[in-house]
Amino acid sequence: MTALSPGATLGIVGGGQLGRMIALAAANYGLKVHVFAPDADSPAFDVAAESTLAAYDDADALARFARSVDVVTYEFENIPAETADLLSAIAPLHPNAAALATTQDRLSEKAFINGLGIPTAPFRSVGTAGDLAQAIVEIGLPAVLKTRRFGYDGKGQRMLRPGEAIDPAAILAEFGGVPCILEGFVAFEREVSVVAARGADGTFAAFDPCANTHRDHILALTQVPAPGIASSTADSAMEIAQRIADAFDYVGVLAVEMFLVAEADGSERVVVNEIAPRVHNSGHWTIEGALTSQFAQHVRAVCGWPLGDPRRPGGVAVEMRNLIGDDVDEWAALLAEPGAHLHLYGKGEARPGRKMGHVTRLLLPP
């Protein structure tokens, strides 16, 4: 991989807040940014040198975009695989199309993770009512039925509980008949994630594992360091992230979401839930809380540059809270709060469940 120079153009597919923050980090390195997205009100358009407003299946627009940039990355994993293939035929694409295709499908993702000897919840493929009935027998209840593709923030999933009257055909009809996966429920102490980066030369740098609290299936609070996690478990979680990144020959930032499970003997372990092949909401704390933010780290990786230092300066504890929906109305009070670092995404309408911004607090000693 040839390292880019300042003044080169980074192409970003997707115009949401993640793309916006990647673009802001790229600007600090003297890079130009060209954003490709299908929505005219995309927040990343506001901070990009150039933008293309077109659908993800517009082959002509994609080709023009790819020819205008020096490297392409993406801010979310639900772009069509055909889009990634077209782009990578014209310009370098990082992370690679194989990582994208694997993580777009929960079934292939979990099979990939298990193939590395890394534990996940038990799972079964579900395509028919008969598949679902058999999967329930084999896995037991409680369990979670999920669509194999296009699910995020709790969308496209349903808990199946013991004692519930279950009509497999009716449940699958609720999901529109799309391919699904049934996952056994993991009794976990907390949800944690590891955000990490891998460079083209195989170097790896992980931020400290963080603990994540969700509200209505949407990330509400991230805490670093993750409270209650043993240092050996944190090391194991980071080692799992590195194994996954190496197996993908990954270039860029990824997040590995995990469950922290307490065993009967007092020990603990992590079970992988899913992989996000991109910068991640649970890594937003790194903008103020780490020597190199996840966004700067991603830009460094995809441009072929050395990775930055992921450590927290002085080992400071950090808390990041999402501003969801009307939470954004607190902006004035947050600006007045000493030590609060406010980030607003430039979105016009504060709908319920919509991430409008976040606030980070460094928990300095008195």
Plain-language structure description:
With 366 residues, the chain is an alpha+beta fold. It has helices at 17-28, 59-67, 81-88, 97-104, 106-115, 129-139, 168-174, 231-248, 286-289, 294-302, 331-336; strands at residues 9-13, 32-37, 50-53, 71-74, 123-126, 143-147, 157-160, 180-184, 190-198, 204-206, 210-215, 218-224, 252-262, 268-276, 317-324, 340-344, 355-363. Strand 11 and strand 12 form a beta hairpin. The protein is globular.
Please provide a brief summary of the model.
This protein is α+β, with helices and mostly antiparallel strands and about 375 residues long. It has eleven helices and 17 strands. The longest helix has 18 residues, at about 230-250.
Which key terms come to mind for this protein?
366 residues, 28% helix, Dna Ligase, domain 1, single chain, alpha+beta, 9-stranded antiparallel β-sheet, 11 helices, D-amino Acid Aminotransferase, Chain A, domain 1, 17 strands
